Amino acid sequence: MKAARREKEITDFHFVIYLKKQEMKMEKKILKRGFTFMELMVVIVILGILAIIVMPKFFGRIDEARITATQIQIKNLEQALRLFYLDNGFYPETEQGLKALIEKPTVGRVPNKWREGGYLEKNILPKDAWGNDFIYLSPGSQGEDFEIISLGRDGREGGEGPDADISSSKI
């Protein structure tokens, strides 16, 4: 009787182990199925809220970066104009514009010692950070030798913030 009882306990034990293994396999299958639709929707809503909070700060930085890039570009153009002056003894006239830095002027006061290849790297006249042409005045509006102006993001005179004009006389 004891042997039969012992054998039944062993069989029951093996059956319990078998059931536990089957339960573990089922749990693994459930875990492999992925997220429910509701869980995905909650994650999407959270990401949307984060985007609403972060995006305005990010776009504000883009405008600041464009203003800084335009100011740096104006400084580079000033350096090229100073090189032009050192070679020729005068700055290009307003009518000649910044184009005098990449092509020898043929109108107005023609420079005798214009540097072959121009005064700008790659012989390309840059635009401001918004893709607009710079305005060149000689003499400048404040009485300086020259003035380089970007009309800002909106491309029109005046404005505030990123739409404000950026002038070499105010940098």
Helix content: 40-55%
Task: Tell me the radius of gyration.
Answer: 37 Å
Number of helices: 2
**Spatial order of the strands in the main sheet?**
1-2-3
Structural class: mainly alpha
Order of helices and strands: HHEEE
Low-confidence stretches: none
Mean pLDDT: 86
Overall shape: it is rod-shaped
What does this protein structure show overall?
- The protein contains two helices and three strands.
- The chain is mostly helical and 171 residues long.
- Strands 1-2-3 form a three-stranded antiparallel sheet, with helices on one face.
List descriptors.
171 residues; mainly alpha; 3-stranded antiparallel beta sheet; rod-shaped
Task: Put the structure in a nutshell.
Helix content is about 50%, strand content about 5%.
